[in-house]
Write a structure and sequence with these properties.
The complex is a heterodimer of chains A (74) and B (248).
Chain A: E1 3-8, E2 16-19, H1 23-41, E3 49-56, E4 61-68
Antiparallel strand pairs in A: 1-2, 1-3, 3-4
Chain B: H1 8-19, H2 26-34, E1 39-42, E2 47-49, E3 57-63, E4 66-71, E5 77-83, H3 93-96, E6 102-105, E7 109-115, H4 116-125, H5 127-153, H6 156-173, E8 181-183, H7 188-195, H8 199-211, E9 215-218, E10 221-224, H9 227-234
Antiparallel strand pairs in B: 1-7, 2-6, 3-7, 4-5, 4-6, 8-10, 9-10
Helix pairs in contact in B: 1-2, 6-8, 6-9, 7-8
Classes of the chains: A alpha+beta (74), B alpha+beta (248).
Chain lengths: 74, 248
């Protein structure tokens, strides 16, 4: 199975490698993982933006996932 | 001549297991052993018991690792408990008859078969052993409660640490692990199904636990580097495993 590389910007953990059947599964896996990671961070989210990249074995970007929190003054 | 009986290691395993709950006489261990009628082996990845199967025999895991699991319509599965030698993987089915989950062999397994009629006889003639079976199933329930709490509320890395703490404690209780080092034959997809996580988050959580220098996990060998810190991180309190022998 092809390997996909998942990396979250600006954090100490390195990228993780997961073998998945195709780009479609990589997309599903990435979205699910992003939800889990953000859920664990919870209120400690440093903000303003969280970015995860997914690359294939050739180093091409398959996906970029972004989540942002915008604080608005009342 | 002192010829070892075929179930010799199983005798020790049962003795270690049940003496973790209470004082148990050799005669009682013999009753347990005599209730076993035959063994079966299962290849890694095969199903020991199928969902919806009606059973008339209980399965005592004598070698290998197994998991209780439930399948969902989309093909995904949740592992609801992990079993090590000495565990009855389906003692509840003695009373429930029909399986509401499956049991899968995670590695090659050997199962000792205990016909329900023998369990029924024990329940009629051996009140103390019957209570110990009861302890066994209520501890299974306590383990499920603990998993439920971890799955619902603990962050992934802590949840993973808790799984390691639980498995090590249970292995050590039956003499299958010591000195904070043990064989853990769980692949990352199995860990993902047990913790209800994506493969990416399992891999990241393991990285985080390693980075915190709580344990090392190379191929199948886990070495706990600092038990107190790991247990603290995991919010692990072994009370639910009821491993302090007392009158039951």
């Amino acid at each position: 199975m092809p390997r996909y590389y998942f990396h979250v910007e600006h954090e100490e953990l390195g990228e993780v490698v997961v073998e998945l059947p195709d780009d479609k599964s990589a997309r599903e896996e990435a979205i699910k993982a992003a939800g889990e990671i953000l859920s664990d961070i919870g209120g400690a989210f440093p903000g303003p933006e969280w970015i995860m990249h997914v690359r294939d074995a050739r180093g091409n970007f398959v996906l970029v996932l972004r989540f942002s929190v915008e604080e608005r003054p009342a | 001549v002192n010829t070892p009986k075929p179930h010799d290691s199983l005798h020790h395993l049962l003795a270690r297991k049940f003496r973790g709950y209470d004082e148990v006489s050799d005669a009682e261990i013999n009753v347990l052993e005599d209730a076993i009628k035959g063994t079966r082996t299962f290849a890694a990845g095969s199903e020991i018991l199928r969902t919806d199967e009606r059973v008339s025999t209980s399965c005592l895991l004598s070698e290998g690792w197994a998991a209780r699991s439930k399948l969902l319509r989309d093909g995904s599965r949740q592992i609801t408990s992990i079993h090590i030698p000495g565990d009855f993987v389906d003692l509840h089915a003695f009373l429930l008859h029909k399986m509401d989950h499956s049991v899968v062999a995670l590695v090659p397994c050997r199962i000792a078969l205990v016909p329900h009629e023998n369990l029924k006889r024990i329940s009629e003639k051996q009140p103390h052993l019957s209570r110990l079976f009861w302890v066994n199933t209520v501890v299974d329930g306590a383990i499920h409660r603990n998993w439920l709490t971890a799955l619902g509320r603990l962050p992934a890395a802590n949840r993973m640490a808790q799984l390691v703490c639980e498995i090590y404690t249970r292995l050590a209780a039956v003499g299958l692990a010591k000195d904070l080092e043990f064989d853990l034959p769980l692949t990352q997809p199995v860990v993902a199904d047990a913790l209800g996580l994506s493969l990416v988050h399992v891999s990241r959580s393991l990285q985080e636990i390693r980075r915190l220098e709580l344990l090392t996990w190379r191929s199948r060998t886990v070495k706990i580097l600092d038990w107190d810190r790991l247990a603290e991180f995991a919010e692990f309190d072994p009370t639910y495993l009821s491993l302090t022998p007392e009158p039951r």
